[in-house]
Design goal:
- It is built from 15 helices and 25 strands.
- With 573 residues, it is α+β, with helices and mostly antiparallel strands.
- The chain folds into four domains: 162 residues, ibrinogen binding protein from staphylococcus aureus domain (ibrinogen binding protein from staphylococcus aureus fold, Roll), CATH 2.30.310.10; 113 residues, Helicase, Ruva Protein, domain 3 (Orthogonal Bundle), CATH 1.10.8.50; 159 residues; 114 residues, no CATH class.
- The strands form seven sheets. The chain has a six-stranded antiparallel sheet with strand order 18-19-21-20-22-25. A five-stranded antiparallel sheet has the order 5-4-3-2-6.
- β13 and β14 form a beta hairpin.
- The protein is extended, with a radius of gyration of 36 Å.
Length: 573
């Protein structure tokens, strides 16, 4: 029997799959899913696996991704399986019961131990070696999510076992730490700390140094013994804090950039949001990251198209500028025609070229090419015609250059504007405001023209989206075309304002009260009552909203109205 050794990937500056995070996550998942029955295991998107689990009549989905760019594991409300492009996997564990969920000490591996004796292992290394393995009681791999043929029937063994390590050996006494930490004098404090404790990762290494008041680029030969003691103590403090986690997402504007199991003082200036559970924080981070990824990809594609169009215009401008230079020959053609007319007596039909006096340059001799098939007068007319044509071309070229320069300026403004678009709302607003020009340049595809939402879009906690109409016509479009029957519809009561729709993607999962309150606050904000307080907002499911025949744009009637009182405001993230 062959052994297969699973190599340990490098920890990225990305703490969703940090081993400390996974230890706490495993405890949460164990409490949530222990004794649950696995109903189905399937994939419907590359690199992502879903496990539907029933426990106490409640359905959950455990979602995992082995994509190196976004390696994760979290539990969510059960997601429906797609009718197409969905593949069943790990059929061996269908109807099996979960006995426990644990994590590997100091490694990014989570284990699901099953009643059948089988074990499902999630390798969340954040590298191409990330995978999901199914083992039997003898630790033989009987199935794998990726490259199954390569792994099946091989003995599973990682490069070290948990028994080889203990906390004291890794977080050693100060003298041991100092000896290892200071052994390479050429290293900076940051690189030395990561070399000493490679399992802590980049984010925690920076946090330790920040709390210690030590520059991360400082060479270790500049450190004092007291500096080393402070660094060592802060490292221990962080591991102590991790036992009472405070999962937090840090934002750049509205974009989630860093997830952490604990508060990061070196990011204290960033906007942040804390959660009661690691699972909830990871779920929110992933859902928002997917949205940002989609936005970034769409924005990048649009920027590439704009740059290509810009390059094309710059090349066209250069060609036309050459035409303008050639058009300056008009005066020369006109001059030759007049010289021919002044020397008709010296010219005859059939002459191909001639040297004659230039009446405009002190009668110096000038060489002129003629068409032998034309008379001297006809040759003069030919040059007059070339002069007229050159002047017309110059006039047209200058007009074209003026138009092209305006288009170049417009496209350059587009690039500047897009650089500042960080949210779906901002990107859609850009596309909506510049729709005609984008279509003129063929910068948006037919599919994008249909899918680009003509509404403001806000993303709330847990991934809920709120869509807001921007005019009476778009209110009608939002309510009557884009809103689904189970979506929640909002409008400030008794005053003019935007139609607001809270999207409900899973009708089995009702939006929590705080989400409904946020959506109502948005509706109050986009109404005549924006500057008031305690504004009444009507809401109901979209299926109870109807538009009377022949009514004005934006006019609707509610059959089942509820009222909530809120202060007008927009979500902070």
């Amino acid at each position: 029997m062959k052994f297969i050794y699973i190599s340990l990937g490098k920890i990225k500056n990305f703490m969703i799959n940090h081993f400390i995070t996974l230890q706490v996550l495993a405890d949460e998942l164990n409490k949530t899913l222990k004794n649950g029955i696995i109903q189905d295991v399937f994939t419907q998107q590359k690199g992502e696996l879903h496990i539907n689990i029933i426990k106490d009549s409640y359905a959950n989905t455990l979602s995992a991704s082995i994509n190196p760019q976004l390696n994760y594991l979290f539990v969510r409300e059960q997601i429906p399986r797609a009718k197409r492009n969905s593949i069943s996997l790990f059929t061996e564990i269908r109807n099996d019961q979960i006995l426990s969920i644990t994590s590997h000490l100091f490694e990014r591996i989570i284990k699901i131990n099953l009643n059948s004796g089988l074990q499902l292992l999630f390798h969340l290394f954040g590298t191409v070696s990330s995978n999901i393995f199914l083992l039997n009681q003898d630790k033989i791999i009987i199935n794998a999510f990726k490259n199954s043929k390569e792994f099946v029937n091989k003995q599973y063994k990682i490069l070290f076992e948990e028994s080889d390590f203990n906390y004291e050996n890794l977080i050693a006494d100060f003298q041991t730490f100092k000896n290892i930490f200071l052994q390479d004098k050429d290293k900076t404090t940051y690189s030395a700390l990561k070399s000493t404790y490679p399992f802590i990762g980049s984010t925690i290494a920076r946090e330790v140094l920040h709390r210690s008041g030590v520059e991360d680029k400082l060479h270790i030969d500049k450190l004092t013994t007291d500096d080393c003691k402070i660094i060592f103590q802060e490292l221990i403090n962080i591991f102590t804090e991790a036992s009472k986690p405070s999962p937090t997402i840090y934002y750049s504007g509205s974009v989630p950039r860093v997830f952490s199991i604990l508060k990061l003082r070196h990011l204290s200036g960033s906007s942040s949001e804390s959660y009661e559970s690691v699972n909830e924080a990871i779920k929110t981070f992933i859902i928002k990251s997917f949205k940002i990824y989609d936005i970034d990809k769409e924005k990048k594609d649009l920027i590439v198209r704009i740059k290509n169009e810009l390059d094309k215009l710059l090349r066209t401008k250069k060609l036309i500028e050459n035409e303008v230079l050639n058009a300056k020959k008009a005066d020369e053609y006109d001059r030759i025609a007049k010289i021919i007319m002044a020397n008709l007596q010296h010219l005859t039909k059939g002459t191909k070229e001639v040297d004659i006096e230039d009446i405009f340059d002190n009668n110096k001799m000038i060489h002129i090419t003629l068409d032998p098939k034309l008379t001297p007068v006809q040759n003069a007319e030919h040059y007059f015609a070339k002069a007229r044509k050159a002047r017309a071309a110059a006039t047209n070229a200058l007009a074209r250059i003026e138009t092209i320069e305006k288009d170049i300026s417009l496209l350059e403004r587009f690039l500047l504007h897009l650089d500042g678009c960080q949210t779906r709302e901002q990107l859609n607003e850009f596309k909506d405001d510049n729709e005609n020009e984008l279509k003129r340049f063929n910068l948006i595809t037919q599919k994008e023209k249909l899918e680009s939402l003509p509404f403001k879009v806000f993303t709330l906690r847990s991934g809920f989206e709120v869509w807001v109409g921007k005019s009476s016509q778009k209110n009608d479009l939002l309510t009557m075309k884009y809103a689904k029957p189970d979506d929640l519809w909002f409008h400030a009561r008794g005053v003019s304002g935007s139609h607001v729709v809270l999207k409900v993607t899973n009708k089995k999962v009702k939006p929590p009260k705080e989400i409904i309150t946020q959506a109502a606050s948005i509706a109050a904000y986009f109404s005549k009552m924006r500057n008031a307080i305690n504004v009444p907002v009507s809401y109901c499911e979209r299926k109870y909203v109807r538009k009377p025949k022949g009514s004005q744009p934006g006019t609707v009637v509610l059959d089942r109205e509820k009222v909530i009182f809120v202060d007008p405001e927009l979500p902070t993230v």
